[in-house]
């Protein structure tokens, strides 16, 4: 983007593919981190006199307009953060988008409605995606990719559109890639990775890669129960992916062979019921050792001994990557595990990176100061796929 700005963008229509996929509760944004993250790019372009056309997806609508997934709340929040009115187009490539873009003055910003309201955005068929990309291309002179959270998607606005316009990487993508390089090239050791979240199947590929890269892997969240079961423990009614047990068993063996310390919870908080996340009524969990989970109970957070153990395993790290909550942090009775890991990152003298998605939202909603971390990524799936060593379509499209 610096190259683009140096060449001058005044009067040019610049399409910024952002990731404004923010969590919403009844139309209210509960974490605006992703909107704040794209501000440097949007501001720089607007200040340089560009007509800035911001586009994004939000949620997973079914290829048709759906008010529950409107980007209108994100557009107003962007306007508040910029301190200037932002125009909003009620469609993506239709009359409203065309009129809104045509009406932009130099230095003004517009947001288009959710890209995924059009089936061409996510189509598997190249021609269908290409046709949608052609219509998006007609709205702009230049493309800036800055939606890091979506670079792992081969979608029209991420992958096909940059091929149709002069294209540049925005500030956010440059920062994110710079940080992830520190986790993949010349990593400072010990390199400790904490992984949580519900499903082990989402993390298999990254664990596979980390078994050759990391020094220590700490496992928490719902996925820990598949590891505990693979180790021979009963896990009651906890989340379990039986079909992943062979893979997890092989990973535990490989960890031992490679000298990677793979650490599992030694105690967990259990309850016969999943907590009510709306009322947040007291859940009154009990703490049990992880090899003594009662048959009728579900593990919902790591326990106090594990919190201490994980903090000690993170204490000497020179590099830390953390992705995925340790428990059901949305309920206060099950937030302590996630808080303890976040606190260990805050206390660390190493370079600490919080992977996006739930863990990024968790550190903010649990009241941690964002500046206390080395970096909080805006990409959950995107940062994991980067660490897996995959080619990310949205980065490949900007690289040529
Ligand atoms: C995310 O939230 O990880 C990104 O915005 C991508 O969203 P998606 O998983 O729906 O493609």
From TrEMBL:
ATP binds at residues 203, 299, 330, 356-359. Its EC number is 2.7.2.3. The keyword Nucleotide-binding applies. Pathway: Carbohydrate degradation; glycolysis; pyruvate from D-glyceraldehyde 3-phosphate: step 2/5. Residues 280-299 are annotated as: Disordered. InterPro entries: Phosphoglycerate_kinase, Phosphoglycerate_kinase_CS, Phosphoglycerate_kinase_N, Phosphoglycerate_kinase_sf. Its main location: cytoplasm. It comes from the Bacteria. Signal peptide: none annotated. GO terms for molecular function: kinase activity. The keyword Protease does not apply. Keywords: ATP-binding, Cytoplasm, Glycolysis, Kinase, Nucleotide-binding, Transferase. It catalyses: (2R)-3-phosphoglycerate + ATP = (2R)-3-phospho-glyceroyl phosphate + ADP. It is found in: Cytoplasm. Substrate binds at residues 19-21, 34, 57-60, 116, 153. It is an enzyme of class 2 (transferase). Monomer. Belongs to the phosphoglycerate kinase family. This is Phosphoglycerate kinase. It comes from Streptomyces musisoli. The gene is pgk.
């Amino acid at each position: 983007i610096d190259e683009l700005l140096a060449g001058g963008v005044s009067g040019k229509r610049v399409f910024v593919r952002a990731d404004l996929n923010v969590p919403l509760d009844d139309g209210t944004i509960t974490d605006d981190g992703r909107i704040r993250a794209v501000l440097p790019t949007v501001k720089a372009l607007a200040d340089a006199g560009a007509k800035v056309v911001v586009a994004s997806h939000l949620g997973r609508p079914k290829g048709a307009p759906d008010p529950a997934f409107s980007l209108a709340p994100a557009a107003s929040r962007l306007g508040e953060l910029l301190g200037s009115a932002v125009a909003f187009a009620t469609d993506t490539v239709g009359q409203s988008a065309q009129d809104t873009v045509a009406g932009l003055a130099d230095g003004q910003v517009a947001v288009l409605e959710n890209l995924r309201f059009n089936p061409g955005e996510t189509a598997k068929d190249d021609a269908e995606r290409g046709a949608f990309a052609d219509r998006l291309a007609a709205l702009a002179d230049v493309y800036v990719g800055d939606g890091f959270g979506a670079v792992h998607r081969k979608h029209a606005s991420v992958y096909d559109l940059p091929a149709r316009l002069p294209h540049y990487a925005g500030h956010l993508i440059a920062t994110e890639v710079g940080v992830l390089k520190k986790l993949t090239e010349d990593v400072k050791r010990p390199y400790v990775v904490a992984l949580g979240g519900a499903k082990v199947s989402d993390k298999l590929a990254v664990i596979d890669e980390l078994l050759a890269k990391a020094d220590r892997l700490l496992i928490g969240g719902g996925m820990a129960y598949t590891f505990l079961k693979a180790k021979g423990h009963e896990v009651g009614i906890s989340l379990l992916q039986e079909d992943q047990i062979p893979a997890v068993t092989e990973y535990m063996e490989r960890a031992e062979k490679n000298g990677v310390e793979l650490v599992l919870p030694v105690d967990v908080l259990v309850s016969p019921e999943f907590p009510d996340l709306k009322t947040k009524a007291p859940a009154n969990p009990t703490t049990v050792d992880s090899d003594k989970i009662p048959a009728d109970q579900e593990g919902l957070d790591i326990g106090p001994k594990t919190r201490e153990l994980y903090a000690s395993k993170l204490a000497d790290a020179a590099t830390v990557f953390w992705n995925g909550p340790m428990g059901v942090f949305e309920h206060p009775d099950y937030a302590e595990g996630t808080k303890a890991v976040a606190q260990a990152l805050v206390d660390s003298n190493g370079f600490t990176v919080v992977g996006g998605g739930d863990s990024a939202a968790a550190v903010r909603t649990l009241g941690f100061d964002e500046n206390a971390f080395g970096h909080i990524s805006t990409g959950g799936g995107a940062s994991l796929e980067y660490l897996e060593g995959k080619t990310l379509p949205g980065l490949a499209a900007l690289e040529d």
